[in-house]
Amino acid sequence: MTKIPVLTDDPGWHGNRLKEAFALRGYQAVFISLKDCFLDLTAGSRGVVIPGFDTLPKFAFVRGVPGGTLQQVIARLDILHALEILGVKVYNNGRAVERTVDKAMTSFLLHHHGIATPDTWVCESRHQAQSLMKKEIAADRPLVIKPLFGSQGNGVRLIKQGDTLPVPMEAHVDGLYYLQRYIDSGEGTWHDYRVFVIRGKAIAAMVRHGESWVNNVALGGRCEAMAHDGELCVLAEAAAKAVDIDYCGVDIIRDRHDKLYVLEVNSIPAWKGLQGVVDVDIAQTLVDDCLGLMS
């Protein structure tokens, strides 16, 4: 059975589903951490060493890029870039991961391609950030502060009239201010949407009902299946195209005036909650698309 590296530090439920899906197609998924891969740039070497692989595989499935220092993260992304240069199909590749793990670049690309996304500001200056916050809040336009890197709603904070600004602000956002205008989906009936896109096509979608304005499943959001077609999914497909990605989870919100906005594009999306409410086998669809790239 041909081995395929699934790059992750924590296989968990998603890893098991991928392993089963690869096995049904005659492949053995081997879980490898990017932390254990390294560059070997000596004479006669193949350039990248993946533990357990004597030769480079034809493709690699990216399920997780571990955090770390800036140097460590860059080195891990270098591995993904190097594999592509050496002819290994990386699913999703390093460029797609870079574009989406960095919320500023995601927002820029969405804006650049004319895709509806909340008004966003990214700056290093505390003075600029604080002036902007005061101006927006005085106009009764709440803002959301998010970490540039992060997922599952962790570290996200809402600032509205009457709230105290984070002090020290640097401690909350690590010296970089990613500020986004808050989109109200309905006080007390908070909800947003997750659309799963593979090869530019929406294959599943759900509504996430939150117990607060943060609707992530990891924070208690309740999932409800919905049709994966129509305006919502067209918008998700456009967002995936804008960041040029193999597969992703696109988070979308609808405001009180029925306008849709793309909040985020996730290159390493969880799909356990979504799988629980839809019939399509997401892991198998991912694996089949990945393998199809090699045919």
UniProtKB/TrEMBL annotation:
GO molecular function annotation: ATP binding; ligase activity, forming carbon-nitrogen bonds; metal ion binding
The record, for PROSITE patterns, names: ATP_GRASP
Q: Which keywords does this Swiss-Prot/TrEMBL entry list?
A: ATP-binding, Ligase, Metal-binding, Nucleotide-binding
Keyword Electron transport among UniProt keywords: no
* Domain (ATP-grasp): residue spans on this chain: 107-291
Q: Give the source's domain of life in one word.
A: Bacteria
Q: Name one GO cellular component term.
A: cytoplasm
Key word Nucleotide-binding present: yes
Against InterPro entries, the record matches this protein to: ATP-grasp, ATP-grasp_RimK-type, ATP_grasp_subdomain_1, Rp_bS6_RimK/Lys_biosynth_LsyX
Q: What is this protein called?
A: Alpha-L-glutamate ligase, RimK family
Q: What is the lineage of its organism?
A: Bacteria, Pseudomonadati, Pseudomonadota, Betaproteobacteria, Nitrosomonadales
The coding gene here is rimK
